[in-house]
Amino acid sequence: MDELAFSHLLPAGCVAITAEEAHAITNPAPTLEEARDARWQLIKAERDSRTLSGGYRVGAHWYHSDTFSRTQQMGLVMLGASLPSGVEWKTMGGAKVVMTTALAQQIFAAAAASDIAVFAAAETHRAAMMASASPATYDYSGGWPPVFGE
Q: Computed from CA positions of residues 141, 47, 72, 100, in that sequence, does the dihedral angle turn out positive or negative?
């Protein structure tokens, strides 16, 4: 629409502004603190997604990392030598493996290592974003430990 075509409708002494200028007035840019907080929320969401659905690798297989699976995996470790023989466990790739005490312990250790690595990557991104001159556009997509499917 041609804003000049309606400029005669403005009261005396008013200045016509463009739609872009009106948008800038009604939607001011976020403050530095708001931009940092918004980006940190996105980094935390990526961290949490990778922690709870990214899985962790043991040998040739990836194992589920959601809360329910983690609870089951802890139970397997707690069973120790009492773990029944022949228990099949489904991996993220769909393969079934025979669960052993040693494998349960390896999965538990992989979960801890994965959590530590994902947390460290998020903290590295947080520090870099906070130091960035433009935190709203800070790219946090790289530098994460791999997850299932990557």
A: positive
